[in-house]
Design brief:
330 residues, 4-stranded antiparallel beta sheet, alpha/beta, 8 helices
C-alpha cells in the first residue's frame, strides 16, 4: 500500500503533526479455530488539522479501527497513541478521562438528552466534568454551525439535521484534539447530510480541528482531505483530494476482488461471533455489523465508579430511555 500518509511518521509523535497513530494494530475476535481478525497489523497515522475518511466494504474493519484509535475498544496486539500518549496501556479510568478531555465523538444516532435544550446538550459533558466552557470558542462553534436561534429548543423541536448539528457542537465544545465521526450522516436525508459534512469541513478549515470519519458514502468521503481504504482488516490504499466518482471507482475494485474470493474474509461482520447485542442502535439497511465493543454507559466523568457512568465529550449516552451510543463494528 502507499506509505505517504497511511504509514507516514508512525511512532514520531505529536511534534510531527500527528494527531493519532497506531503500529501493528491487531484486533481479533473469538479463539482457536473461530478466531477472526477484524484488524490485521495496521500501521496508520492521522495528520493533525486534516479531515480523514475511512472507507471499505462492510466488515472490512472501519469502525473497529476507529474504536481502537479512540480507546473505545481494546486491542489484541500493537500500540495506539493519541498525540504523544500511548493509550493501549491505560487503565479504564485513565481512558475515561482521556476520551472526555481530548476526544470528541459523533455517531449515526444523535444521542441527545430529550429533556435538555440544545445549549444544555452541547455543554453537558463539560458540566458533568465540572469544567467551564470557553465562551469565545463555544460562541464561534455555535455560529459556525448556525445554531444561535435554536439553543433554547429541545431535541423533539429540532429536525434531524439540526439535532446532528447539536451533536457536532457538543463534540467540538471542549476543543478536543481529535473528533471521531462514525457514519454521522447515516440517519439524515441528503440535504441535511450535506449540511453536516459542510460543517465538519468548516471545523477543519476554519476552526483548526482534526476529523476522522467512517463512512460508506463516496459523496461523504469526497469532503475529506484523504481517504483510507480498508479491506479484510488492512489498509490497502489511499486517495488524496478525493472525488465521489474516484472513490466509487476505487470501491468497485474491492467489490470485484471480494466477489471472486471464496468464503468470508477476515474482518467480515458476518464472521464475527455476536456477543451482547442489547442496546445497540439498529444498523443501516444492507450494512453488516458485528457486536459492540466495550462502551461507556454514559458521560465520562473520570470517577472511580468502576464503570464509565457519564458522557465522553460528544458521545453522550444515558441508557435510561435517552438512547445509546452506537459502537457497531464494521
Amino acid at each position: 500500500m502507499p506509505t505517504s500518509a497511511a504509514e507516514h511518521a508512525v511512532g514520531q509523535g505529536d511534534a510531527d503533526g500527528i494527531a493519532a497513530r497506531a503500529r501493528g494494530l491487531t484486533k481479533a475476535y473469538g479463539s482457536g479455530e473461530t478466531t477472526v481478525l477484524a484488524l490485521d497489523s495496521v500501521d496508520v497515522a492521522i495528520a493533525r488539522g486534516r479531515f480523514t475518511a475511512v472507507m471499505g466494504p462492510s466488515g472490512s474493519g472501519k469502525s473497529t479501527l476507529m474504536h481502537c484509535l479512540a480507546g473505545l475498544d481494546t486491542v489484541s496486539a500493537g500500540q495506539v497513541w493519541l498525540g504523544d500518549t500511548e493509550i493501549t496501556g491505560l487503565k479504564d479510568r485513565e481512558l475515561t478521562r482521556l476520551r472526555r478531555d481530548r476526544i470528541g465523538f459523533m455517531f449515526q444516532s444523535f444521542n441527545l438528552i430529550p429533556t435538555l435544550s440544545a445549549a444544555e446538550n452541547i455543554t453537558l459533558p463539560m458540566d458533568i466534568a465540572g469544567q467551564r466552557p470557553d465562551r469565545k470558542w463555544l460562541d464561534q462553534v455555535i455560529d459556525t454551525l448556525g445554531l444561535r436561534d435554536r439553543l433554547g429548543h429541545r431535541p423533539a423541536q429540532l429536525s434531524g439535521g439540526q439535532q446532528q448539528r447539536v451533536a457536532c457542537a457538543r463534540a467540538l465544545a471542549s476543543r478536543p484534539e481529535l473528533i471521531f465521526a462514525d457514519e454521522p450522516t447515516g440517519n439524515l436525508d441528503s440535504r441535511a447530510g450535506l449540511e453536516v459534512l459542510g460543517f465538519l469541513r468548516e471545523a477543519v478549515d476554519d476552526l483548526g480541528q482534526t476529523v476522522v470519519m467512517v463512512t460508506h458514502d463516496p459523496g461523504a468521503a469526497a469532503h475529506s482531505d484523504l481517504v483510507l481504504f480498508l479491506a479484510d482488516g488492512r489498509i490497502v490504499d489511499e486517495m488524496a483530494r478525493p472525488t465521489a466518482e474516484g472513490v466509487l471507482e476505487r470501491m468497485k475494485r474491492f467489490d470485484t476482488v471480494r466477489a471472486g474470493s471464496a468464503g468470508p474474509a477476515p474482518g467480515d461482520a458476518d464472521a464475527h461471533p455476536r456477543k451482547g447485542d442489547a442496546g445497540v442502535v439498529p444498523p443501516q439497511a444492507g450494512a453488516d455489523r458485528a457486536a459492540p465493543p466495550k462502551t461507556d454507559s454514559g458521560a465520562d466523568s473520570g470517577t472511580d465508579s468502576g464503570t464509565d457512568s457519564a458522557a465522553d465529550s460528544g458521545g453522550v449516552t444515558a441508557d435510561g430511555g435517552t438512547g445509546h451510543v452506537s459502537h457497531d463494528k464494521d
